[in-house]
Amino acid sequence: MARLHLPTVAEMTPEQRDVHDEVVSGVRGRLVGPLRAVIHSPDLARRWSRLGEYLRFSTCLPKKLNELAIIVTGRRWNSQLEFHIHSEAAIAAGLDAAGVEAIRLAQAPVFTDEAEVEVYEFARTLQQTGSVDTRTHAAVTARWGERGVVELTGVIGYYTMVSMTLNAHEIPLPDGASAPLAPPPGGGLTTLPACRLAKVLAV
Q1: Would you say 49 and 22 are in contact if contact means Cβ atoms under 8 Å apart?
Q2: Distance between CA atoms of residues 106 and 194, nearest Å
Q3: What's the pTM?
Q4: Tens-digit pLDDT profile for residues 60-85
């Protein structure tokens, strides 16, 4: 059960209803996840929703790489709802289901796409160490440009905020859904084999 009251549409104030209507008329189509909590601060919710729409749907990164960064973030923070939603979205966007499952289990995924290796390592190291090494940053920049590396960092930061909100307020999973993540040791993300990294990140 959530730690906050999650208002129904009928219970919303006029300001909350304005935000709700803006969200459901947009690309999301419904008020879900952290916005169910953030609606208690309508001005924050409005800005949050607009930023989130951009970072989920409009970056220059291919959708499967965007979703990869999101599920790595969800795994890092053990965010059940975030991983539940975005693991499905990642597979639908073309990410290999076996790789998604490895991340869920806090194991090293096997990627065939070098761009996936780069995004995984960028997201993993940023969240586990607070920074990104030079060669990983350079590899992402070389592939997607300065816009791409900035937007990727924004995705990771935004979905960290999402994870914190979902976890702090215990926003529930959909009815009938089981929690996909077990509490992991060491932050839940596993480095890829050194030989694989050396080949991909030789920038």
Answers
A1: yes
A2: 17
A3: 0.90
A4: 999 999 999 999 999 999 999 999 99
